[in-house]
């Protein structure tokens, strides 16, 4: 199966909340591929790989991973709403 390079997929909820709070566009929540685990699908951008690496390995005070707490809270709330709805 060939994957579409225009999209980034992840099952890591908090990574997805981080990306969403950084402005990434959520295009789908795939609950069909594996009914036990949702896959969040984002439109990919050139800086996504850098941000994913920073999320995993940057020092905790790195400016690349700092996010406004209100944006992160809204991102978590939005992802959970999309997770439990059949919106997509």
From TrEMBL:
Domain of life of the source: Bacteria
Annotated DUF5659 domain residues: 6-55
Pfam entry (one): DUF5659
The protein's name: DUF5659 domain-containing protein
Taxonomy of the source species: Bacteria, Candidatus Woeseibacteriota
């Amino acid at each position: 199966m060939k994957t579409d390079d225009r999209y980034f997929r992840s099952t890591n909820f908090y990574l997805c909340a981080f990306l969403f709070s950084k402005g990434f566009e959520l295009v789908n929540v795939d609950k069909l591929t594996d009914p036990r685990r949702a896959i969040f699908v984002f439109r990919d951008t050139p800086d996504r790989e850098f941000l994913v690496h920073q999320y995993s390995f940057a020092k905790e005070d790195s400016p690349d991973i700092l996010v406004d707490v209100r944006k992160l809270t809204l991102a978590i709330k939005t992802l959970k709403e999309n997770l439990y709805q059949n919106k997509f």
